[in-house]
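Holo prediction — adenosine-5'-diphosphate.
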Amino acid sequence: MLNIVLFGPPGAGKGTQAQRMMDATGLPQVSTGDMLRAAVKAQTSVGLEAKKYMDAGALVPDQVIIDLIKDRMKEGDAQDGVMFDGFPRTVPQAEALAKIVDVSIVLAIDVPDERIVERICGRFSCGNCGAVYHDSFNPLPKLGCTCGAFSEKRRADDTESTVVARLKAYHEQTAPLATFYEDAGLFTVVDGDRDIDLITTDLLNALN
Ligand code: ADP
Ligand code: ADP
């Protein structure tokens, strides 16, 4: 059982690294952001509630997130462990998680604020397979997405004005979690302001 928490500000590269680590770890990526966007699209009650927070760049209430995670962790593919991406984001979420599963390690991807806007405003993904790209830093290959059926998707909240709110939420509500996991002896920091492949190597080394 290996439960990894990928930690870092919005746009740090958590999703990018989770996708790259999937083969090496054999663990599924559990992204609360992806789960919420699916709920918004399906217009479920959770989606309708979450949308107003997401549009404003604010965090969705803890209980909504905790209920989503409780259900997700009952699924078959989560039984050997998962890679949490974008969860937990508050101390109450981390406390709730501790009652559901043991966290094995927290891998923090450190990226300075001044890099975040350019990362988020250039982000797009493949609507078919979910691969994450960037206009300048990780462009679509000349031959197209490796899945062979690329369709471009951009997030409604990936705008400069929303990023400011998301960064504020990160510093006020999420960053204090670093101390929570440092105190538990679980916190490892990797420099995220480098080439994507170098970061993947460091993250996998940290797991060994
Ligand atoms: P997060 O899941 O933490 O929000 P993403 O993985 O979606 O972050 O990455 C945000 C954007 O930055 C994407 O467009 C991605 O291609 C790009 N990106 C990810 N890692 C790096 C990196 N090391 N250097 C430059 N750009 C990166
Ligand atoms: P990011 O690129 O900012 O890391 P995510 O896809 O993780 O984006 O999250 C998008 C939005 O979904 C957040 O701005 C927030 O409104 C909501 N969200 C995602 N995960 C959580 C969480 N664990 N707690 C509260 N809100 C969340």
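READOUT: The beta strands are 4-7, 29-31, 83-85, 105-110, 123-126, 132-134, 152-153, 187-191.
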